[in-house]
Amino acid sequence: MSGRGSSPKLALLGGTPVRGKAWPQWPARDAEEEEALITALRDGDWGGFPLPNERSATFAAAFAERHDCKHALCVANGTVSLEVALQAMGVESGAEVIVPAYTFEATASAALFAGCVPLFADIDPDTWCIDVESAAALITERTQAIVPVHLAMTVADLDAIGSLAGKHGLAVLEDCAHAHGARWRDRGVGSWGDAGSFSFQSSKLMTAGEGGIVTTSDDATLDRLHALVNCGRQRPSAAEAVPVIGHNYRMTDLQATILEVQLGRLDRQHEIRARNAGRLGAAIEDINGLVNLRIDDRVTTQAIYQFVFRFDSEAFAGLDRDTFVAALAAEGVPADGRFYESLPVSELLRPDPARYPAWSEALARRPAADCPNAERAAYRESVWLPHQLLLGTEADVDDIVEAMLKVQRSAGDLAGLQTAEVERLRQARSAR
Question: What is the pTM of this model?
């Protein structure tokens, strides 16, 4: 059902929604994945040992080339990819690692798992990537690394980050979980730092259900990665032995089989998303109270994991962001608001002195700084739309726009509702 058949009354209040039909499916799949999996199934070589197994080696080489890196190594998921990348880069236990305050908790928890101390920098208010000046203010003699996150549909300022890291001798780990195929000044993300980390979790732009990969162009980093991921076993061609107690963080060849097919679709999907994102972004420019994130001119290929924009309640009769998101979802447009927390106040990141003594000691010396831009994004401004909404047609984009306009026209009908009441209405509608 398109907007032409919807009623003026908001769907959250019992009206007819703008959108009643399904969106493009995700994960995207067809006979190619099926045929590849059947071939792998019949071969019987399903696991990740020896590392890298045949299919994971083939996929990793193609992925590395796609991102202008010398090497890539497949791993179990996009959290352990961050953890082992920090260790393989030589970041020491107890060292401080600077991460943005607005990102998924795994960016910080992976540093903890690696024995490091995460410190939170605020974000740029226009791009929502790490603010380099905020990061610079956190640097001490204990700081050894910085982890810029390429968030949603933006790319962190890799030139400024590289300059800052070079000045202070910091390692750079790019968190590219949202940025498969993105390019900065026509060079792949994941190739600008000492290493890059990508996720293949179900919602990501490429997926095998789970999985991750680390990119690097440094041979020694690759040697340490192999040992860390493969139970301490050495890479056969390693220049020298790497004495570590490693984990089994290998990816299976069944996953790599799926990802080979997914990589082949990536460029075409980028083209479709980019075209539809352009149409949606242009429409948002004309809607009072909605603001697009700024995309740096140096982003020469954009990856759109989620279409994200800023919401201003004043243009919606004082409606808060979470009520706007609930109303939009009721109109048939999947949306999220508190997609990420501000990490300094996240309930998922509470220091346990017994388990993370270095972090607890660091917080005692220097409590987590206020990150007002991150808090404003997390709790008042951010609206996230999943990328599969942009894999359809112009008419699909127009439904998104009509739903936004409908909510704005009738925002006064929702003004004054309490959060609990909005949640009750949302659940009642979902139960129909």
Answer: 0.94
